[in-house]
Task: structure prediction
Amino acid sequence: EAVIGGYTEPEGSREYFGSLVLGLYNRKAQLIHVGQAGTGFDQAMLANVFRLLKSLETKDNPFHGPVDAGRKAHWTKPELVASIRFTEWTHETSQGGLKLRAPVFLGIREDKDAKQCTFEEQLASA
Result:
């Protein structure tokens, strides 16, 4: 799982958004960027997730440190948890985090609090 802290602009014929900007909390309770998930959505899921994102939109970047989202990012309050499948953790970032390789969105976890999404939890379950 990962916290959704924003989304990027759609490209081409895609509607609603391009990818989800994801993060995990470190030991200092700072949200650290771990990558983006832009696959795993059908049209209905894009519309439903976008509706949730718009309701949480904010002008404030919720992440600690740099976010390389590749495209224009829109920030959201870090309240939604995404279930994510990925192949492996990659390089460590300057903020002490890791990056997800090939993340795929599986759904929204309504039963989990965003503050529970930590590096420690994810590495223990890897």
